[in-house]
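Supplementary Methods, section 5.1.

A reviewer requested that the exact input to the structure prediction be made available. We therefore reproduce it here, unchanged from the version used in the analyses.
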Amino acid sequence: MWSHAASTTTSPHPEVRRPQAGASKDGGGWPSATTPHYCRPPTHHASLPLMEVTVYILRCADGSYYTGLTKQEIEARVWEHNAGTYDGYTAKRRPVELVFTETYDRIIDAIARERQIKGWSRRKKEALMAMDYEALPGLSKRGPAKAG
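The structure derived from this sequence is encoded token-by-token as follows.
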């Protein structure tokens, strides 16, 4: 059902702009600052100001995952987590590593996605990070949706 070539990626969420696999210098699949990594036509909400909001997942030093969102550049936000700028979940779990991002035009969509991911199991988050969209329904707490 879901497929993606090396030059493009797809998402089950039409509002999501996905990073290309293998786009970073370290081969980790995250785009560099100069790599164009998403494309989306304007939304039908022309009256709303567009902004870029990133939902992200960090792997903490203790192996746990932290899901957050930011309106600033993701590299700067990860730096803040590693510097301990704010007291919170990651402050005592440093260093952290960026393992997943999704970018949205509307903050309301990013907030909804962050809340959704925070409610997921570790296995489901790991399937998302691996871009294994076909596995996501089966990893739901309620199990896959039944046909009919």
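The longest helix spans residues 107-118. These observations are discussed further in the main text.
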